[in-house]
Structure formats: structure tokens, C-alpha cells
Amino acid sequence: MKWTKKKLNNLFFFCGIAAVVVMLLTFDVSFYELWQHLCRAGYWLVPIIGVWIAIYAINALAWQCTIKGNISADEHVSFWRIFKLTITGYALNYATPVGGLGGEPYRIMELSRDISKQHATSSVILYAMMHVFAHFWFWFSSIFIYLALVLIGDMPLTTATAIVLGVIGIFCLIAFYLFTKGYRNGLVVKVISLIGKIPGLGKWSARMLTTHGESLRNIDRQIAALHQQDKKHFYSSLLLEYLSRIVQSLEIMFMLLLFDIDCGGGLSGMMLTFLHSVLILAFTTLFANLIGFLPMQIGVQEGGFVISIAALGLSAALGIFVSIICRVREIVWIIIGIMLMKTGKQTE
Hints:
Layout: H1 5-25, H2 31-41, H3 45-68, H4 79-95, H5 103-111, H6 117-151, H7 159-185, H8 188-195, H9 202-229, H10 231-258, H11 266-290, H12 300-311, H13 316-340
Helix pairs in contact: 1-13, 3-4, 3-6, 3-10, 3-13, 4-5, 4-13, 5-6, 6-7, 6-9, 6-10, 6-11, 7-9, 8-9, 10-11, 11-12, 12-13
């Protein structure tokens, strides 16, 4: 059977629907408990879900920067098209195992309707790299946020905490080195070559390099070109992706405020509450991404929230509440993203 873009679009759509059904049926709490949590959130659900419009818009702007720095003069993709593909791509990432293996192929397939397939592939790979690269900067900067809070007496610094912060710092520095090499030289050919060393995938790797070797090398050259020749778009994309993590921290802050946790109130109290939210998000995303092969990181995200919130001296019950409301928000946006797949002109 020949897989047309329309058939692949339908496959992604039905996989997304199936994943949402599975997630709803495998919630860690009963529907009665879930309803109680939703009632407690009340009108706060509006800003908690709504803030993701801003987050996805910032993500779309970051992706647009990589696209602009990677296409020819006669190619164009509108911001609203990128915004839509951003939401649908992340919906598939959340809903499929090994986050990224659902959304990225879909983005390439859809974006290739607007620009050349090579440019679509390199733009999606570049943005995926930037998304992860910004994560490392977010985790790295969170170390210094924690230390700043230690200096003002807001956070403790034990030997165990110092070791954890040191390990995270070394982990991020190694990642910065690897990403810098990847941006300078490209990494697609190297990754496919490494995949070939996995038992059973050697023939596939050799076939890919033989059949599409020149195209893959062109993609690597396009990746390197953005970093070396178009630093404006490169650093704009990185800054925007980092900013999206900061804005995402507002989601957790809203839930802390819901529990009347505002560090004493006033401007200074709100600022401390926001910085605590940044730290909670940083630890939770680090924990979830280390075990990112589960759909929506089932169980991992919940554990990350509970541990990170408890580490800040807050109750485990608050961690469970935050994780459940975040899970509900994810399901809402997965449904929105899946529905967006069927809007606009359909692929053939």
C-alpha cells in the first residue's frame, strides 16, 4: 500500500485519538478524585490552560527563526501555519512513546508542503535541537537561581544538594559541548551511522547513507550554516525557547497561589513564589526528560512534581495536585492539537 500524505495524516490523527483514550483510562486517580481536584482548581484552570497559548506562540516564533535562517528567498511559511504545526507537533510528542518520534515526522511531512523537503527536514531537526538545547540552559541557569536563594536564606544547602547541583552542572556542560559540535558540523549523518551499530539496524543505516547520503549531508550543511552564518536567527531562537520555559513557570505559580502559597505576599513574596516555580519546573522537566520514552512520561512527571515540591519544603499533596492539573492541561491541548490536524487544506 502506498502511503500518501493524506493517509499518513489520518494515521497520526487516529494514533493521537487512541493515545488520549488510553491516557484517560489510565489516570492515577479515580474520576471522582479527579473531579474534586478540578473543582478545587476552579477558575484558575482558565489561566493554567490559557498560558499555553503564549507558550506555544513563543515556541512558534523560535521555530520561525530557524526556518527563516534555513530557507531560500522564494520560500515562505506563515506564522499561523507554524503556530498550528507547533501545537499539533507537541500534541503528538506528548501522546507517543519516545517523545519527539511522533511530532517531528509529522512536522516534516506537513512543512514539506510549503518548502522543499530538505529545508523542511533541516528546519525541524534544527528546532528540535534548539528545544533541547534551551532545556539544558534552563536547567543550568536554575542552579544559579537556587544558589541565589541560598544566599538570601530562602533555601538550604546541604551536602547532598550541593552534589546534585554539581552533577546537574557537569551534565549540562557536557551537553553544551556536544551541541556545539553538532551545530558546527551537523549531526544527521553521524547519528544514522551510530544507529547502524545497533544490532539489526546496520543494513537500514547503510541503505540510508547510500541512497540518501548527499541529501543527508546537505541537511547537515544547512544545520551548520545557521549557527555559523546566521547567528541572529540562531540566538533569537535560543532566547525565545528559553523564554518559553520561564513563561511555563507561571502555570505552576498559579497553582501555588491557589493553595495560598505566596511567600508572605507583596512584590518580594510573589517574586520568590515565581522563582520557586522555576525551580519546580526545572527539576521536574529534567527528571521527566531523563526517562522520556513513556507516553506523556506517565508516572515520571507525577513523581518529579512530588519530589521537587517536597524538596522545597512543601507538601507532597500539593505535588500530586500540581501533577494532576498539569496532566489535565496536557490532555486538553493534545485534543486541541489532534483536532487542528483536520483543519485547513488536506494533504493528498
